[in-house]
Amino acid sequence: xxxxxxxxxxxxxxxxxxxxxxxxxxxxxxxxxxxxxxxxxxxxxxxxxxxxxxxxxxxxxxxxxxxxxxxxxxxxxxxxxxxxxxxxxxxxxxxxxxxxxxxxxxxxxxxxxxxxxxxxxxxxxxxxxxxxxxxxxxxxxxxxxxxxxxxxxxxxxxxxxxxxxxxxxxxxxxxxxxxxxxxxxxxxxxxxxxxxxxxxxxxxxxxxxxxxxxxxxxxxxxxxxxxxxxxxxxxxxxxxxxxxxxxxxxxxxxxxxxxxxxxxxxxxxxxxxxxxxxxxxxxxxxxxxxxxxxxxxxxxxxxxxxxxx
Length: 309
Prior knowledge:
Blueprint: H1 4-17, H2 23-42, H3 53-65, H4 71-90, H5 117-127, H6 140-155, H7 159-163, E1 170-172, E2 175-179, E3 185-189, H8 192-204, H9 206-210, H10 230-243, H11 252-265, H12 270-277, H13 282-285, H14 287-303
């Protein structure tokens, strides 16, 4: 009789090798499935064949009541559990998929938090100097930081995609290659402001940083000459917000949300924005259209003489 832990290990190996699942998603799945094993272990269940539908429903309820997890986190955890049972059914370990009918709670529709173009410009200026206004050596790291923030807004890249860019991914000054979830590749244009900031970094800063360590293909380097981490990018954004005396909450994803919202407000087709963001479904991108509709309503309500109260 198969043991739960072995079954989970086999499933995660399948996701890695056969499905090419992204590293961060795999880590989340492992964490969620370990919690599932612990829960079942408390019930003296150590084999998938012993699991009943009621066990999975109770596990989901516990996530909400005892763990106080939000609906999206519960849904992700149940996706991992359901995926495990479906895999075991396919492998012949189980005869019935008891998880198939267990539905996660519906997540409330949350609008992305975009900020205005003027706020974006404030953050860009606070991150580092203009490409043609670079001073002494003390500005070098801030030149890199400016390039990073410019690239986030110019491409709509996720922070994980940004830090994984290699030099070879710079196809030409106007085009960059990004690798999204599941290592899915996409090509994204780079605007002239980001191009200028990136060239300033490549010419004036990266060679100095690269000399501090063994050769690395990474585009953005830290002060040790190795690939920049996601945590470092978060800190760069946080520092820029503090320098700009910004009161709103800002994260790397804020630039992605703003990128999409500003494109749609400028008249871009939603399917073009879908491609640029690397969304598998246009339904994911369409949530940004709700933001622009809300903005239109607000402008109409304040500007139209027969709409004012």
